[in-house]
Amino acid sequence: YCIPASQSETSIQTDHGIIVFFVVLFGHISCLEDTGTYFPSVKRCPGRYLQPCSDAVKRWLRSMKKSGKILLLITSSHSDYCRLVCEHILGSDFEELFDIIITNALKPGFFSLVPQQRPFRTLVDDVEDSEGLPSLEKPGWYSQESELDQILRCLKNPTPRMKSPSAVSNQWGSYFVDVQKNEGEETRSLTWCCHSIHTYSTMAIPSIEAIADLPLDFKFQRFSSDKPITTGYYPRPPDSLLKWEEN
Predict the structure, then answer these.
(1) Which residues pair with 140 in a beta bridge?
(2) How many domains does the structure of the chain reveal?
(3) If exposure means fewest CB atoms within 10 Å of the residue's CB, which of 23, 104, 123, 185 is most exposed?
């Protein structure tokens, strides 16, 4: 959404309204109580919104587990919605594919906060049922602490709105390369999204199907500041990046 500069003094209130809107629309209670428009629609017709994984992907997951790999499923979705999605895309036996399932993970904080800050909890009938676990001692399905308090703190203590670090384009173009036209001259630059992928990711793939048939010891090239911008994409870099590198 866009807010004119003249309305900047009301932007914080608008941000609050949008946050509340998304909490109500996509919050755990809406899924549990089957309210709103999103969750009831997905429940009634999951095939309209979800694409089942191919048999190759399922074989790939089973082969990794059979070879002794520890498989984790980590999602910010709550357990009931996770089950709905996974049963449709992986099958009713999807839990057998993973050693540990963690829902309500609240990424990216999941990767930076210690358990004492946001402890793991066991689940009974999709309800968190413990005071918090110091660590995960055995395989199973776990949840992290609810984010409600964090949302309320966010509403009470708003932060300044961020400005996009990439140039604004007048038309939709490549996800990776932004094309600006000024008085007949064309200027190309890497987008903020492209920069973020290259800076913060290890590698990028378009679909699990692209790697499902690879051997488990396959060596991927990874993103690195001392390598070309196209290094790290598998099975091949995006066309727009290849053209950008040629120029």
Answers:
(1) 100
(2) 2
(3) 185
